[in-house]
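RECORD TYPE: inverse folding
INPUT: structure tokens
STRUCTURE:
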């Protein structure tokens, strides 16, 4: 019995990190080998790097998943809707628009987390005067706590770094302590400080990237421990965590391949054992796909013919047509090369690579050919290292496999590229750099620093410092949409989407600018961006909408209406185009046309109360306009049409009374004004009515009544 126990202990010792033989000498101070200190350092580093984001506002796609998502903003009550529908259904709210990109999106885990945070930390929304905002039904409007959301991202990012460190420590502890801690520390440090991650961490919505990688790395760690410690419970836990990571973002599915590779490269397990430990995760992935299909269906749909959702289109004869396979692959390999460039030299970063920031490319472009050569070389090196179980090969394979799913090679992802797509693959890059650094540091003998030790350590420190400074600086751009869009447009000048976004935020921000010259300058700058957007993308519906809005702010109503018409030519049922054209027509005093457009909103599904108020205001404005022109009967007609739709019936009754007084119909004027007086509770309204009644009675030859209302006016 004792002999059997000893054999079992020996078996575990040969497989586990705990069984590693400790060298009598260490190359670093003793504290460097204390895991709790590393854990604390990683958490602190995450806070230091991203602490300046905690007071930031929502940005970019946060509207999709948080503050403009009807399920998230219901708190826990919205969880069933989150689980039942496409991730973006709560934002678009209109059937079909949630699947603008082929296949749809199903990532409920982070939305459930956002809904929980909304439930626990929501607060009443206040206007510029500090007053609580209420909806049309008088209910308090709530908003999420952005500090809590940003803190969550920073915390989970730190936790991801910790799991990465522990995993790497376990993978490499079969050798010397120096090797294990050096590789784990350097790789984790580079991962934490790399500015390519700012999009995932500084943008609240990026939590889906963080949670997916966190869950996937934890899955590998627990699966490895299950094998090394012979604990089936850990394998069950790993499968459960993997299932959750898939619900955060679908690219976790690449770990179905990563897990067997980990076992192959870093354990003595035989193929049958690797299969036994890998198959449960394949089963989990299949189960997830069936759950996903139950929500979204198996039909991935045809590729989109809208440039903003499919960059692999070109305009021919006024029609968008698909690129050939060769044309598409040329662009794909250019972006793959761009990814490597950003990993090595993240000097200029932008959140937007939409068309045509990445232009149409061909195989005659040297950047495309160079990228192809580099990736072929990486692939060949990785394959050659398979038999030797070279950890460098593992790092390269990890990078290639995790990048493949977002590369547009496997299936379309809706954009050319994005820096957040490198969040998961960057682990492979950081590991490769750490391995190379260790080889240079180690020299000729294992456990003995080589001639380049000082150079290596100094280079690591300098590189980490520079990357950290870049990260902190890059975070500032993510303060809010205005800062992000106006900053990044200089680095993505050929992106129709970013040109449109920059123009839109400038146009909106101009409305709070008090200085007339500055306001006009902002609107003119907005027009520059928006016109460039439609030059790049001649059928860009939203850009035409924003052009209409900007011209409306400039009070150039014919131009505004022209661009709203362009929107409606592209989509006759566009709610925003219909609504905003109605506003421009109203501002241009073309009231009958404005009313007709607002009435269309009922059929387009706009909330009845909102449409009622738009119509009521338009009728009121029309009445005041025609009253000013001396057309009192016409004015009264408009005021009466507004009456059943408005919540300010006392004000409308007052206007009717004034109109009657202007046409010298004093009995009707007095009756209307007295009725208005009986309806109102606001003292400022009563003052106006007293003044009007005094004037009407004076003109009607009732001096006593006029004096009575004058005295009431004085009392006010």
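DESIGNED SEQUENCE:
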């Amino acid at each position: 019995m004792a002999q059997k126990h000893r054999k079992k202990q020996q078996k575990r010792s040969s497989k586990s990190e705990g069984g590693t033989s400790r060298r009598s000498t260490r190359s670093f101070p003793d504290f460097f080998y204390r895991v709790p200190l590393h854990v604390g350092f990683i958490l602190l580093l995450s806070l230091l790097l991203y602490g300046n984001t905690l007071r930031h506002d929502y940005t970019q796609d946060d509207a999709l998943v948080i503050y403009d998502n009807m399920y998230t903003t219901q708190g826990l009550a919205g969880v069933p809707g989150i689980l039942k529908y496409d991730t973006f259904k709560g934002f678009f709210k209109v059937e079909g628009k949630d699947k603008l990109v082929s296949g749809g999106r199903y990532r409920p885990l982070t939305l459930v987390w956002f809904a929980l945070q909304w439930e626990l930390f929501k607060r009443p929304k206040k206007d510029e005067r500090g007053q609580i905002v209420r909806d049309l039904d008088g209910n308090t409007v709530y908003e999420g706590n952005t500090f809590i959301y940003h803190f969550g991202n920073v915390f989970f990012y730190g936790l991801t770094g910790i799991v990465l460190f522990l995993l790497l420590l376990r993978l490499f502890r079969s050798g010397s302590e120096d090797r294990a801690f050096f590789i784990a520390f350097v790789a984790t440090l580079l991962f934490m400080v790399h500015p390519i991650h700012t999009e995932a961490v500084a943008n609240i919505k990026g939590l889906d990237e963080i949670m997916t990688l966190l869950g996937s790395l934890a899955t590998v760690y627990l699966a490895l421990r299950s094998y090394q410690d012979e604990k089936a419970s850990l394998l069950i836990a790993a499968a459960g965590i993997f299932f959750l990571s898939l619900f955060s973002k679908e690219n976790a599915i690449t770990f179905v391949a990563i897990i067997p590779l980990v076992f192959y490269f870093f354990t003595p397990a035989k193929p049958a054992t690797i299969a036994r430990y890998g198959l449960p995760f394949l089963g989990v992935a299949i189960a997830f796909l069936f759950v996903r299909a139950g929500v979204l269906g198996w039909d991935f749909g045809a590729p989109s013919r809208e440039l903003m959702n499919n960059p692999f289109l070109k305009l021919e004869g006024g029609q968008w047509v698909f690129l050939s396979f060769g044309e598409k692959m040329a662009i794909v390999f250019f972006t793959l090369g761009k990814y490597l460039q950003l990993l090595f030299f993240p000097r200029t970063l932008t959140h937007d690579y939409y068309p045509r920031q990445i232009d149409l490319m061909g195989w005659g472009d040297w950047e495309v050919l160079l990228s192809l050569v580099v990736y072929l070389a990486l692939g060949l090196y990785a394959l050659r290292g398979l038999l030797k179980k070279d950890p460098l090969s593992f790092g390269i394979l990890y990078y290639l496999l995790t990048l493949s799913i977002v590369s547009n090679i496997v299936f379309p992802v809706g954009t050319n590229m994005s820096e957040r797509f490198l969040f998961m693959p960057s682990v492979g890059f950081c590991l490769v750099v750490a391995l190379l650094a260790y080889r240079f540091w180690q020299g000729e003998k294992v456990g003995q620093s080589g001639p380049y030790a000082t150079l290596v350590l100094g280079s690591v420190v300098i590189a980490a410092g520079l990357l950290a400074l870049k990260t902190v600086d890059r975070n500032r751009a993510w303060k809010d949409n205005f800062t992000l869009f106006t900053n990044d447009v200089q680095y993505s000048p050929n992106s129709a989407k970013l040109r449109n976004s920059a123009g839109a935020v400038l146009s909106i921000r101009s409305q709070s600018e008090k200085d007339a010259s500055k306001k006009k300058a902002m609107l003119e700058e907005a027009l520059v961006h928006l016109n460039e957007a439609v030059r790049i993308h001649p059928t860009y519906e939203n850009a035409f909408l924003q052009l209409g809005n900007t011209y409306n702010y400039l009070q150039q109503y014919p131009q505004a209406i022209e661009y709203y018409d362009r929107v409606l030519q592209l989509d006759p049922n566009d709610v925003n185009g219909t609504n905003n054209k109605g506003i421009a027509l109203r501002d241009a005093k073309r009231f009958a046309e404005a009313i007709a457009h607002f009435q269309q909103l009922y059929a387009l599904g706009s909330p009845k109360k909102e449409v009622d108020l738009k119509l009521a205001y338009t009728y009121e404005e029309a009445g005041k306009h025609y009253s000013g022109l001396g057309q009192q009967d016409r004015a009264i007609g408009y005021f009466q049409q507004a009456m059943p739709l408005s919540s300010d019936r006392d004000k409308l009754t007052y206007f009717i009374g004034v109109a009657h007084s202007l046409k010298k119909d004093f009995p009707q004027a007095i009756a209307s004004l007295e009725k208005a007086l009986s309806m109102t509770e606001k003292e400022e309204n009563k003052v106006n009515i007293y003044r009007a009644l005094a004037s009407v009675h004076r003109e009607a030859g009732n001096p006593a009544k006029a004096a009575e209302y004058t005295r009431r006016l004085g009392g006010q």
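NOTES: Strands lie at 123-124, 142-143, 313-316, 319-322.
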